[in-house]
Amino acid sequence: MSDLDRDVVTNDYLLDVIIIGAGFSGIAAGVRLKEAKINNFIIIEKSTEVGGVWRENTYPGCECDIPSSLYSYSFAPNPDWSHVFAKQKEIQQYIKDVTRRFKIDQNIVFNTELVKASWSNEQQIWLIETNTGRYKSKFVFFAAGPLSEPVTPVVKGLERFKGKIFHSAQWDHSIDLNKKRVAVIGTGASAIQIIPAIQPIVDKLYVFQRTAPWVIPKPNMIIGNVPKKVQHKVPFTMHSIRRLTSISMDMFSSSVNQPKTLEVLGKGLINWMHYQIKDPVLREKVTPKFTMGCKRILFSNTYYPALAAENVELIDQGVREITKNGILVDGKEIPLDIVVWSTGFEVAKPPIAKRIINKNGTLLDDVWLKNTVQAYKGCMIKDLPNAFMVLGPNSISYNSLISTAENQINYAVNAIEFVLNNKLNSFEIIHFADDQYNHKLRNKLNGTVFNQGGCSSYYLDENKVNVSIYPWTMQYMKNDLEEFDHSNYHFK
138 vs 6, 121, 221, 459, CA distance in Å? Predict the structure, then answer.
């Protein structure tokens, strides 16, 4: 969007919709709005290009751990993926291509970051304050995503370190890792991709692990030209593969939800790990001490062989103190050139809540500090009229987040159409309906491995309440969000 257009929009111009964030969710929302002939909207994006998490995460080895056929839009299948699990660069290129193909780039205001979003009871609209000016809209999509704010631990002596230090989501490509002494802090989804990628080039690699993860083989085969040509000529094959993949992921998710069904698979994975790691001491360190699925299950064929390499040392404890030259472990200093935080993101409480003011004039973050983080069907928040939080509380599953986002966006657009068609000003979820839904959700979660698996994870808040996981299948979600259930809402 040009500067002129931006000036026109900010001068008391009332938009139908403002979308916060131009990642996968924000672009999907734009496409769905255009499909519904709701064209009076903008997407504000803090960066200079689209992509969200796939724009920000450029670390070595970065790739998806959901099959490419499913980790893409249902309305824009891609016949040209290079691998079963796509690489970061082609995922980023894919979302840029889709943005141009559906002409969503015409609706994006770049270099514009949300400062505060507040609901005006008097005007019955959203007032959106940004670093470049104020906007007004009838509806708002908060589409910042659950993986938008990196977490960096507070460690004693951090400011003294003379080497280079950065988070995996903010990779510094100006730094040469060749022949360097490097520490990777954490053994989560990013770390198990980074470690095999940098192990061959560094002099010494220290991996700090607080909890050994469960790791499953990743069949990331190259997709040849013949399958690509078939998908180009017979698009039905892409939709069929996507559907079968989704069913498979739902089956996997259902099995993971039940702790007792995982014992056989767990034994098989331990045998597979023993095959790749011969050292009994290292074997013991990387053997998980909790039920599979309690924390996020990771996918890799190269992680264990990298840990077993001669230039890698696994330290099975967290980082307690950093010196000017390295990290202290049991009173001894490990000299380092580079420290990489691979410590994940703020997931349990969406960071965007620090910028949203509800109809009562209260910051959403403060509401959630006093009460449990929760949403109705993962996207509707109490006391936030005309607002949708895409991939909000309890939206994560072992299926594609893009499928989840599309389901929630479809529900949201149906709600907007209902309000506009009935000449209403605003709507909001009835508190009783919200509480009833979350009671049902938590009852379902109570029997799952996420709650009963004997681990602490980012799925749980400080009170051990699971505020992240969606416990049902993607097909269940699709059916549940197919139509707007207006009887559960207040209208003005």
Answer: 18, 12, 46, 32
Query: Residue 422's pLDDT is what?
Result: 97
Query: Which of 160, 155, 30, 36 shows the shortest CA–CA distance to 98?
Result: 30
374 neighbors 467 (Cβ within 8 angstroms): yes
Q: Which of 352, 360, 349, 350 is nearest to 114 (CA)?
A: 352
* 3-class secondary-structure state, position 186: coil
* CATH class assigned to 158-213+258-341: alpha beta
> Which pLDDT does position 335 carry in this prediction?
98
Cα-based distances in Å from 489 to 91, 142, 177, 411: 37, 19, 55, 13
pLDDT tens for each residue of 428-455:
999 999 999 999 999 999 888 888 878 8
Question: What span, in angstroms and rounded, lies between the C-alpha atoms of 130 and 426?
Answer: 23
Sorted by where each begins, the domain ranges of the chain are 3-148+347-491, 158-213+258-341
The residue among 148, 189, 170, 131 whose CA lies nearest residue 24 is 148
For residue 391, give the DSSP letter: T
Q: Is pLDDT above 50 for 459?
A: yes
Contact 398, 249 (CB under 8 A): yes
Q: How far apart are CA 341 and CA 327, in angstroms?
A: 13
Nearest to 24 by CA among 56, 62, 61, 2: 56
pLDDT digits (tens, 9 = 90+) for 370-384: 999 999 999 999 999
* Nearest alpha-carbon partner for 198 in 328, 320, 326, 338: 338
Give residue 5's pLDDT band: very low, low, confident or very high (50, 70, 90).
low
Q: Tell me, which fold does domain 3-148+347-491 have in CATH? A: FAD/NAD(P)-binding domain (3.50.50)
